[in-house]
Amino acid sequence: MTCPICRKDSDPKYKPFCSRRCADVDLGRWLKGSYAIPVTEEEAQDDRPDDGGEEHPTRLN
């Protein structure tokens, strides 16, 4: 198996990575949101719950 960051052979100690450095690079990418799945505006609206068109009682106008 190769390291997904640098493509060197992976080390069993850091599997699937080759080193602590590559594992940290991957973690940094996760924390920054680099691995986020893009969503279209239409998909985002489909995921919102239908509130019947009424305003939420705790929202401030």
UniProtKB/TrEMBL annotation:
- Purpose: Inhibits all the catalytic activities of DNA gyrase by preventing its interaction with DNA. Acts by binding directly to the C-terminal domain of GyrB, which probably disrupts DNA binding by the gyrase.
Family matches, as PANTHER family: DNA GYRASE INHIBITOR YACG
> Could you tell me which residues belong to the region Disordered?
37-61
Task: Keyword check for Metal-binding, yes or no.
Answer: yes
UniProt cofactor note? Binds 1 zinc ion.
Q: Which organism is it from?
A: Paragemmobacter straminiformis
Alphabetically, which GO biological process terms does the record hold? regulation of DNA-templated transcription
Gene assigned in the entry: yacG
> What protein am I looking at?
DNA gyrase inhibitor YacG
Q: Which HAMAP family match?
A: DNA_gyrase_inhibitor_YacG
| Residue ranges, compositional bias (Basic and acidic residues) | 46-61
A Pfam family recorded for this sequence: YacG
Under Gene3D superfamilies, the record lists: Erythroid Transcription Factor GATA-1, subunit A
Question: Which residues of this UniProt protein bind Zn(2+)?
Answer: C3, C6, C18, C22
